[in-house]
User: Fold this.
Amino acid sequence: MSYLDHFKLKEQPFRLTPDPDFLYWSKQHARAKAYMESTIWLADGFVVITGEIGSGKTTLLQSFLTELEDDVVYAVVSQTQLTPTEFLQAVLTEFGFKPFNKRKVELLDMLNMFLIEQYSNGKKVVLVVDEAQNLTRKVLEEIRLMSGIETHKEKVLRIILAGQPELKETLESPNLKQLVQRVRLRFHIGPLDSREMREYIKHRLKVAGCETDDLFADNTYDSIHRYSGGVPRLINTLCDTALLCAFADEKHAVSAEDIMAAVAELNWKEHESNTGLYEKLQQVSDRMQALPTVTQIEVRSDRERLSVQSFPPGRIIVGRSPDNEIYIQSKFVSRHHAQLISDDSGCVLEDLNSTNGVFIAEKQVKKHRLRNGDVISLGVHELVYTDLRQADTASEEELAESDDEASVAGK
Assistant:
């Protein structure tokens, strides 16, 4: 006997694969969907939807797409680690073309002609980009240009960008001001609160065929929220494991003990949103911001400045994982590629056993004391190091010289 038969369920209520039939319409999800639907009748500008991993963005997108009318043609691009040309090819492929072995100008012409043709036939065209946080600035700029394709009356391409919170940070870059000006609506999907989580669990059980209202005991919900943080994917994982634990013990309902057995099975700790970790991190951040900054790092790619960051004394990690102080999205950069340690004596660069190495002046280094103005190469990216203490000293000396010259002139 399977656990479905045991609990009299028709299908798994907490599977992780996106399924629009199981979508729970929290106020947040309903509002996000309303924003996406607005793209159908508002052709100018596009919508940005962000949310944490497991917040239900992909399921929401699928629900939105399944309800589109026959006069809407859409393309969905989920593989987003692409060059601008590869991105255009992916879009055209979704629209039914075979756009390979063509130059970029030919791809743009194909897309332009397709959009004008669909408009002439009374069709609306929607482009949905999932996992948009992985898009490079060059591809985002390409999307901005695509959004500008128009007839003499209106724009002809509606665009929805969906991604993890890093997408918000990317869009705040000064280099993307023109793109952000095209964003009509933006919404972030957060975790479910305790009440919503309870409704979410009961909704999924009902869709799966559960005929009782007490399969999960009342005293289970606080623990589920404490360990899942209200994140739908984590709720699913914990509830499914708890059902298996109850099934193994031949119980016909899930108790608080089964939830804790599932937590132990998964080796989970309380979710960070419930442990005060965020507040502790904010306190650390506030203390760090109170310290004087001594190190400045300018990140460049293809001679284009991507960002400039300043740091107080301490350790700075560089890598392609979002938890790094300097976050670089590149396949040539390791998750934790290198570190810079600054103190009263200066700054030391150290390779953290990266795959592609760390270079200064085309020479690979494992550990190197930086000099003001050193350029560090990581794949196709460059980091320009500035010791702000030296810069301040130089400014003070220049000011003193200026005062001396003014004094002499006065005499």
Remarks:
- The CA atoms of residues 117 and 123 lie 9 Å apart.
- The radius of gyration is 27 Å.
- DSSP finds 14 helices and 16 strands in the chain.
